[in-house]
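Fold Annotation — chain and its backbone
Next Lines — sequence and tokenised fold

***
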Amino acid sequence: MKVPKLAAAGFIVLALLLIGLNVALVKQDRRLAALNKTYEANLHLSVGDSVPPLSGVTSIGSPATVEYKPGQPKTLLLVFARSCGACESNWPAWQRVLSQIDPKRVRLIGVSLESTDLSSQYLAQVGLTKAEMIVLPNVGSVVSYRFRYTPQTILIGPEGKVEGIWSGVLQPQQIAQIEQRSLAAEVRPLPAEEKDAPSP
């Protein structure tokens, strides 16, 4: 059976249109993915960022400031909120991290984004009795540290530079990274796969 030339030409035009549409959709998808990645990166700190002292109050209302000075241990911030379901899921991972790090080399600071129900019983239950202090950050620190997500685990060097940041519930590989980075003497850039997308 002979296909009319007009019909054959129509099929060819349709095929070319579909191929062109596919290519355009792939480009659009890549562009949106890049925009999304840039947007998310602006919502939290990145490795290499410098941060000012962390200021606020303790869980009992006393003024609190966490400073970074050469010669001091690194600082590990555990950023949480009492009502955060992902934080509840993350406490076992944080407890494992706390059992592995050397307090002479890393000081632990809990950062609560909520002031409610931070009783000593709750802090003991989640394992934060090992923390040097619990800080409820002031507005300036919330802005400077881009505290928008919980849970976050942030490792900061003695001179106030971010050496690692992990958002969301920690996976075993990430726990190993935190332990390794906590013990490392020198800062080296993290591979792209170690930088995790934030969890709302």
Notes: The first helix runs from residue 5 to 41.
